[in-house]
Amino acid sequence: MTIEGRHLPVLLEETVAILQPRSDGCYLDTTVGLGGHAEALLIESAPAGRLCGIDRDTEALALAKGRLRQFGSRVELRHGDFARLGAIAAENGWGPFDGILFDLGFSSFQMDNASRGFSFMRDGPLDMRMDRQGCDKSAAELLARIPERELARLLQDYGEERWARRIAARIVDARRTQPLTTTAQLARLVAAAVPRRAWPRRIHVATRTFQALRIAVNDELARLRRGMQDAVELLAVGGRICMISFHSLEDRIVKEMLRGWARSEPPRVHLLTKRPVVPTERESEINPRARSAKLRAAERC
Ligand SMILES: C[S@@+](CC[C@H](N)C(=O)[O-])C[C@H]1O[C@@H](n2cnc3c(N)ncnc32)[C@H](O)[C@@H]1O
Fold first, then answer.
1. Is 136 in the pocket of ligand 1 (CB under 6 A)?
2. Is any atom of ligand 1 closer than 6 Å to the C-beta of 34?
3. Where does a domain end: 180, 197, 217?
4. Structural domain of residue 202, as residue ranges?
5. Residues 237, 294: one domain?
6. Rounded to the nearest whole angstrom, what is the distance from the C-alpha of residue 103 to the centroid of ligand 1?
7. Which CATH number covers residue 177?
8. pLDDT score at 7
9. What is the pLDDT of residues 74-96, one digit of tens each?
10. Is the whole model's pTM more than 0.90, yes or no?
């Protein structure tokens, strides 16, 4: 099976049910990844529905291009950051859209590739950049210079890590003798910093540290806010925005922004999900990555 075939899109049926793709519709996937959701939207909007898509990751985008080639001129894909959505849409003459999707975070393709440095399960360079051609610093570069207090704050804020200060102290101590360059080195340091009795039962002891660094390296939360602000401007009246998030920090931003638009005078959207839609037990069993997913959606007034 191909890499893109192995990646299971999260909350796929629920996303399609909300976006209700039509043959005269035009859709935007801001996180095309391996093209799983995009493919479903194109199938459901056959024969003439159109899809524009972007991703920060050129390697994922190349795979998505291959997968979606069968849809010919119905698809347009570009390398880009959703924080620049307004500019990208203007440059390409895109919009307004009948549906916009954000499927946040990283794909299994990025996670499973040791050379990308996202995973503590596979030893690789401590990179974690979604866009290796962009100007973000790698996790190794960030860890080489960041002051200890700032690092502790980052682990606390972005990883909600209880042992943030101990982990930060351990990292700063270790880098005095040897630069931190690999995921295994970092995972070992975190394991040594957290007392064994306090190791979490359901997740790896380094999960929160890796999440925090990934968010910081890619400036994910600020980009999410900018992307959503641009997206609401690009929605046609009656168009729908569908947001899939994977941790509480993202979900909080999504919830607050959607509510803010719904409460503005006059309202810019009405909410389609009072509570987030979550995966069925069956989906979580088949695809453990889906377990933490939450979907929220709204319709442009
Ligand atoms: C969960 S995956 C998307 C999977 C996709 N829906 C599918 O079915 O194959 C998230 C994708 O978002 C991309 N991404 C993350 N931040 C981004 C940003 N600021 N702009 C554009 N793409 C981004 C990542 O590179 C990754 O490919």
1. no
2. yes
3. 217
4. 137-217
5. yes
6. 6
7. 1.10.150.170
8. 74
9. 999 999 999 999 999 999 999 99
10. yes
Given 190, 217, 244, the domain boundary residue is: 217
Query: In ligand 1, which atom is closest to the CA atom of 227?
Result: 19
C-alpha 177 to ligand 1 mean position (Å): 36
Within a domain: 118: no
Same domain for 224 and 101: yes
- Indicate whether 25 and 92 sit together in one domain: yes
- In this prediction, residue 3 carries a pLDDT of 61
Low-confidence ranges of the chain (pLDDT < 70): 1-6
Per-residue model confidence (pLDDT) at position 61 = 96
Q: Which among 83, 16, 84 has a CA at the least distance from the CA of 45?
A: 16
232 CA distance to ligand 1 centroid (A)? 18
∠ CA 91-96-102 to the nearest 5 degrees? 85
279 lines ligand 1 (CB under 6 A): no
Q: How far is the CA of 55 from the centre of ligand 1 (A)?
A: 6
- Work out how many domains the chain is built from and give that number: 2
